[in-house]
Amino acid sequence: LYNELHAKEKEIVTGVVQRINDNGDMTIDIGRTQAVLKADDNFKDKQFKCGDRIKVYVASVSNRERSGLSVKISRKSQELVKKLFEEEVTEIKDGTVEIMAIAREAGSRTKMAVRANVPHVDPVGACVGINGARVKNIVNELGNEQIDIVEWDDNPAQLIVNALSPAKVVSAVADEEEKKAKIIVSEQQLSLAIGKSGQNVRLAAKLTGYGIDIKSEA
Q: Cβ atoms within 10 A of the Cβ of 2, count?
């Protein structure tokens, strides 16, 4: 059983909700064993009930003499988003498009940077799908979590500009040694660039690995 589950480590499995405790912990049947999805890891993305099918990311599988088989599952991990895109987008599965970085605040918003490894392929378009069908399926699976897909760029300043989407940037200067960036936006774009409670700039900073200082032209 350990070998069977260990082969599924770092993958998505579909299970069935068996029991929901008063504290919100859910016992999930993932085949020949059960695992507990902790309440704080479920982040209230979707309201599940007993009997529902649920996709979870298998974070780790261990087999200890004293405690026996232990399977840690998650829906909060950014790896869940990555694996969902691998399942949904053929171009990611076959290596035409590569996910370069993901920053996630589970249940609220994810930013993902992608690049094409083949000329004339639109990496963002491939992930979004015709009429947004591909990304829509993943958004539905994650309980309407917002997903921003941006194009990766080896130039840090341009990558930061892309990461701050949907805000429009006037100028961007990135210091590669200090890992800091100075961004100028118009007065009208300032609140969009920062985002609600600072979320847009926070996720852009996580995605790029740069400290981002945003100021308006004024």
A: 14
CB 9 within 8 A of CB 61: yes
Cβ atoms 185, 179 nearer than 8 A = no
Task: Say if CB 56 and CB 12 are below 8 A apart.
Answer: yes
Token pair in block for residue 114: 């992608």
Average confidence (pLDDT) over 152-167 = 97
70-111 per-position pLDDT tens digit: 999 999 999 999 999 999 999 999 999 999 999 999 989 999
Q: Which residues contact 81 (CB under 8 A, 6 or more apart)?
A: 102, 104, 110, 112, 138, 142, 147
User: CA neighbours within 13 Å on the CB side: how many for 200?
Assistant: 21
Among 4-13, 42-51, 152-161, 205-214, name the one with the lowest average pLDDT.
42-51
| Residues 184, 185, 190, 192, Cα dihedral to 10° | -120
Q: Looking up tokens 């961007």, which residue turns up?
A: 172
Nearest to 154 by CA among 214, 113, 203, 112: 113
b vs e for 184-200, b when ≥16 Cβ sit within 10 Å of the residue's Cβ?
bbeeebbebbbbeeeeb
Cα(112)–Cα(103) distance, integer angstroms: 6
The two beta strands, 180-185 and 68-74, are unpaired
- Amino acid code (one letter) for 38: K
CA angle 118, 119, 121 (to 5 degrees): 80
Q: Could you tell me the pLDDT band of residue 41, with boundaries at 50, 70 and 90?
A: confident
